[in-house]
Each structure stands twice: as C-alpha cells, then as structure tokens.
From TrEMBL:
InterPro entries noted in UniProt: BMC_dom, BMC_shell, CcmK-like_sf, CcmK/CsoS1_BMC
Family stated for the protein in its record: Belongs to the bacterial microcompartments protein family.
Keyword check for Manganese: no
Domain BMC: 5-89
SUPFAM superfamilies: CcmK-like (SSF143414)
Record's keyword terms, sorted: Bacterial microcompartment
Name of this protein: BMC domain-containing protein
Compartments (UniProt record): Bacterial microcompartment
GO cellular component assignments: bacterial microcompartment
C-alpha cells in the first residue's frame, strides 16, 4: 500500500456509527479496522487505506452519521507512524493483496484450483469486503464501483468464478 492513512470517526450512538461504517466502505476503497465503544454511547470507528480513499471515506461517513445521529469528532491521519498504526488497529496495517492486480489474478487461479481439487467453496474464507476488493482489482467485471459496493456475496463469487473460467480457456 502506498501512502497509508487511518481515519477516525467518533459518534454518539450505535446507529450513527453503523451508518458511518456503511458509507465509508461504500464511498471509497477502505477497510474498517475497528469499531470501539468508549463510554456513555460514544463509539469510535476506525478505517484504513490509501490516504485519498480514507479522506473520501471519512467525509462520506461523517455525512451519513450526521444525517441520523451526532458526530463528535473526526480525523484523518496520513502516513501514521507504525507504532500508532499498531496501537489503533492492534496489528501492522497491510492490505491482503498489496502486490496489485497481477497477484490478485494469480490468487484467483490458486483459489479456484484448490477448490476444484477438494470440492469445496473456494471463496468461503473471504469476507464480502475482501471479495469486493478482488473484483475491483480485476477491472473486468463490467460493474461500476457503486455496483460492486452494493453487490452481495453470491454476485461477487459468480464474477470471480467467471473470471477464473475465462482465464482457464486462454
């Protein structure tokens, strides 16, 4: 990941933080790395990703949370020190596929191949967020970013399976 950033959004109430998290991941390519209840209904949401994406996600999250609740504070920390990242997230921040789309395509082939050999679902170990990230990295899904953000597990898995089949035919 190039220029990493952490975004923090502190809200009053659970509904506001859920709306903030939803808007953040739909609005930009970020990952929710934490949702921490503080006290008296105050909840802090933490997102991470590329600096520009985090800034965009925080802006979307603040807008969504403000519409149904109260946003107390928000901040974007571009290029945080590694110890700060570990303090906030509990571990070093690394994207699951930092190497880029070529590695994602190879990973798709590995996952499909391993599932065919054992008869299981190759995508069962991936979260919907991770599946969305894979589909975005392929850039061959035919879906817009908004459509990918709203796609369910079944749709995402179908796109990845089709991609794997197309690559086998080549």
């Amino acid at each position: 990941m190039g220029n990493v950033a952490i975004g923090l959004i502190e809200t009053q109430g659970l509904a506001a933080v859920i709306a903030a998290a939803d808007a953040a991941v739909k609005g930009a390519d970020v990952v929710v790395v934490g949702c921490e209840p503080i006290h008296h209904g105050i909840v802090t949401l933490t997102v991470a990703g590329e600096a520009a994406a985090v800034a965009e996600a925080v802006e979307s999250a603040v807008r969504a949370a403000s519409a149904i609740g109260r946003v107390l504070r928000f901040s974007v920390l571009p290029g945080p020190w590694e110890e700060v990242v570990e303090m906030v997230t509990g571990s070093p921040l690394r994207a699951r596929f930092p190497e880029g789309p070529e590695i994602v395509e190879n990973r798709c082939d590995e996952v499909v191949g391993s599932a065919e050999s054992d008869g299981g679902d190759p995508w069962s170990g991936y979260t919907v967020v991770e599946l969305r990230r894979l589909v975005r990295a392929l850039k061959a899904s035919g879906l817009s970013g908004r459509e990918i953000s709203k796609a369910n597990r079944r749709t995402l898995v179908e796109i990845l399976r089709r991609h794997g089949e197309e690559r086998e035919e080549e």
